[in-house]
Amino acid sequence: MADNDAVTETTALDDRWAVFDRWGPYGLLALSTLTAWTAADALGMSTGERRACGVLIVAAVVLELRWNRVVRARPGPSAAGARHYALRWAVGFALTWANPLFAFYAVIGYFSTERLLTRRLRKAGLFATAVTLAGSQSGGLPPRGELGWALFGALLAANTVLVLLFSHFADLEEARGRARLETIAELERTNTALQQALDENAALHAQLLVQAREAGVADERRRLAAEIHDTLAQGLTGIIAQLQVVANTADPALAREHVDRATALARHSLGEARRSVHNLVPAALADDGLPKALEKTVAQWEERTGTPARFTTTGTVEPLHDEVAATLLRIAQEALSNTARHARAGRVGVTLSYFGDEVTLDIRDDGRGFDPRVRSTRTPTGGFGLGGMRARAERVAGSLDVESEPGQGTAVSARVPLVRHD
Q1: Cβ contact 83:119 at 8 Å
Q2: Over the stretch 45-99, which tens digit does the pLDDT of each residue have?
């Protein structure tokens, strides 16, 4: 806004000077003529001097009329401007010689040097005008007697000093004006570059939104796959285990018991699958908090596998955000499923710990263990395993660590931020 005001102010000032350059000489000439003619008798002007002044006045008017037509085609300092300045100075000098009061017209030389003369001619033009005005101020040209010449010299020196001083100030103002215009031009270029950068940033932002949307879709697909695995695959694994017992036993009562378990597990898995597809929240968390849901999960796993399992909670229990609670429950389910399939454990311990701003879930068994440095190959019947659990933890800004050695059991530890329920 300030830059626009500066440009507007500069343009307005230039317009005012253009009006003065066009009409100022006529006004000053008319004022000089009226004043000089009024004092002609007092100054003792002869008839010849009056006629000469009349001719010079007409010449001055013609000179200005001609220049007003020329300046439209060639504005600014030029050789034509220097010729016009010299002719107008000569007319003003002659008029002032005849009558000192014509200095009102001659003073126009002070105001037109910058618009008519090049920089190297300006001081000469100002000095010539100072000579004319000093002659008028000393009583007319030529000076009379030694006192007249002394007065003329003193006035000429004073006018010259003042002219040079004001010229210096004008040069400083002009330099400041040029610097201001250059600054404005630089700001305009900067604003243009900034607008281009903003446009590029807007395009980049739109591109990032598209990429984020695509990444979100891919992440949601992986999440859905994990949810289906946690509901259907784990349920089917348990059903298969129960049916294998039925197939390998001759005891009708035992077979009936495992068939009932398989049926119950199938119904439970179907209900959880429907709920998970609907809102991706585990069914166990629909009515209970995370500790209760984990306790039920461990108890059901113990009943299904026959392996002793214990669940423990430490710290002050706090309600967790649904996403965090679901993540820890799914990790526990996957870890227990892996234990049932691979560990051949004698006992299992699950611990949920609250530590101020962090929640930790530990699943430990005394099974056969494995070497975590050896990356297992995922089979078509395999689960999401450690990689899936680690991805789940990282999705909520957590981490997952695994400690195991062959024959020494396995410990899975998940750490996530304690994000409270909204």
Answers
A1: no
A2: 888 888 988 899 999 899 888 888 776 555 677 888 888 888 999 998 988 888 8
For residue 358, give the H/E element and its range.
strand 358-365
pTM beyond cutoff 0.85: no
Whether omega for the bond prior to residue 142 falls within 30 degrees of 0, making it cis, is: yes
d(CA 172, CA 114): 13
Handedness of CA 391, 392, 396, 399 (dihedral sign): negative
Nearest in space to 116 (alpha carbons), one of 172, 68, 159, 56 = 68
Q: How far apart are CA 85 and CA 291, in angstroms?
A: 100
Please report, for residues 142, 143, 149, 153, 160, the alpha-carbon distance to residue 146 in angstroms, rounded to integers and kept in the order given.
11, 8, 5, 10, 21
d(CA 168, CA 160): 12
Tokens at 138, concatenated: 């000393």
Q: Give per-residue pLDDT as tens, 344-376.
A: 899 999 999 999 889 999 999 999 998 887 765
Single-letter residue type at 316:
T
CA-angle at 283, arms to 278 and 284, nearest 5°: 160
- Check: CB of residue 334 under 8 Å from CB of residue 389: yes
